[in-house]
Amino acid sequence: MATITDLSGRVAVVTGGTRGVGAGIARALLEAGAEVVTCARRPADRPVEAGGRTARFLPVDLRDADAVGAFFTHVGGEYGRLDVLVNNAGGTPYRMLEEGGAQRHARVIELNLLAPLTTSLAAHEQMRAQPGGGSIVMIGSVSGSRPSPGSAAYGAAKAGLEQLARSMAVEWAPLVRVNTLVLGMVRTELSYLHYGDEDGVAAVGRTVPLGRLADPAEVGDACVFLASERAAYISGASLLVHGGGERPVFLDAATTGN
């Protein structure tokens, strides 16, 4: 990765930063010089490393508000500051609305919307009290702006997350900036669960205007930018990281000529 800027001396927390997109974000922040703390309910099989440095891991259940508060108090006490929070933790199983009942769908909303709210409130307490404030980055999804059959609760949560970020950006200005990265499809170690084998991944990639799925490192680059002083006047924004979006289905259905 080409380092976008120098984040040396900054302290960053990446929720769900142990694998997939979160690990890509953590690596990008490490390469930019930040001290990185990742958190999840369980540690990864191997540490997240980049540039000869390793991210710190601390376990926490992001659905537990008291545990989240204790986590951020610990980070602030040990490192003396908190400059960046990336709300990456989330996800959903494929489940149609009539399956599983309202409580299961509510759990998806809890993880993808309420947990980022809880972590952001805890981070804000520290950021607002320190010189220079801080930067919060929400990891959103294109599922929040289009129909998402099979993941409707997830899409609703991501739509809410983007709106939440805009309101936070106004309420917490000027010390704390809040932005959203709106992701399309990203290739991770779990892509096969959604798209099948290599041929399936390639076929899905061809539906993207840029011809492929994103790499987690590319999401990390965007996070580093939003966390840096190069984005000092960017707040309340939604940055699309989706390779050009989705080709409209009607273009394939339409015929030309007679």
TrEMBL record:
Could you tell me which Gene3D superfamilies the record lists for this protein? NAD(P)-binding Rossmann-like Domain
InterPro entries in alphabetical order:
KR_dom, NAD(P)-bd_dom_sf, Sc_DH/Rdtase_CS, SDR_fam
Q: Which domain of life is it from?
A: Bacteria
Keywords tagged on the record: Oxidoreductase
Q: What GO annotations for molecular function exist for this entry?
A: oxidoreductase activity, acting on the CH-OH group of donors, NAD or NADP as acceptor
| Keyword Oxidoreductase tagged | yes
Q: Does the keyword Oxidoreductase apply?
A: yes
Domain called Ketoreductase: residue spans = 10-189
Tell me which NCBIfam families the record gives: PRK07856.1
Family classification:
Belongs to the short-chain dehydrogenases/reductases (SDR) family.
What's the protein name? Short chain dehydrogenase
Query: Upper taxonomic classification of the species?
Result: Bacteria, Bacillati, Actinomycetota, Actinomycetes, Kitasatosporales
